[in-house]
Design goal:
Blueprint (H helix, E strand, L loop, with lengths): L18 H12 L17 H15 L10 E3 L3 H15 L6 E3 L16 H7 L1 H12 L1 H8 L2 H17 L5
Parallel strand pairs: 1-2
Helix pairs in contact: 2-3, 4-5
């Protein structure tokens, strides 16, 4: 079996601003414990700004050489990620008939009992979790790892693990 053909260039794009991001920011500004969300996290759409961001990125790619545009599009099953990919493609960021491959392994992390809570909400409703987060953030190991770029490397590790499954023959 031949080795998988890896792309010469890989663009990783997070979804545009979502209605959930707007609701989170509003909840923090008001100092409330819960983020006012009207649907499940997976069904949260883009905000108007998020739609604009997705189109702007697509327009930017449309101005590049055809050979510099993506020829494969992946998205998570989250509505906001799929909307971002569709708007990006519609704005010329990729061929109009380029399929968007929905892959469950690209899901965002789940927060469990902390889902939908603001920082103050975690502190008032689950103080033990707030204390755990405080201890973790203050640990010398985490501080040293952060200074050494651990956030980037953890993110890279998460992406590269998923890419090994997506790209046939690469794992």
């Amino acid at each position: 079996m031949s080795a998988a053909r890896w792309p010469e260039r890989l663009w990783i794009v997070r979804h545009g601003e979502s209605a959930g991001n707007v609701a989170r920011d509003r909840a923090h500004a008001l100092g409330v414990d819960r983020i006012d969300l009207s649907s499940r996290d997976v069904d949260i759409p883009l905000s108007a700004l998020g739609e604009e961001q997705a189109r702007a990125l697509g327009q930017w790619f449309a101005e590049q050489l055809v050979t510099d545009r993506p020829d494969v599009l992946f998205a998570s099953p989250y509505l906001r990620a799929q909307e971002t990919a569709r708007l990006f493609r519609a704005a010329g960021g990729a061929d109009g008939d380029e399929p968007i491959c929905i892959d469950e392994r690209l899901r965002e992390k789940e927060f469990g009992i902390l889902d939908g809570l603001t920082t103050s909400g975690v502190a008032s409703i689950h103080p033990e979790q707030a204390e755990f987060r405080r201890l973790l953030a203050n640990s010398i190991i985490v501080r040293r790892a952060a200074r050494a770029g651990a956030t980037l490397s953890f993110g890279y590790g998460r992406c590269s693990t998923r890419l090994r499954y997506i790209m046939p023959g690469s794992g």
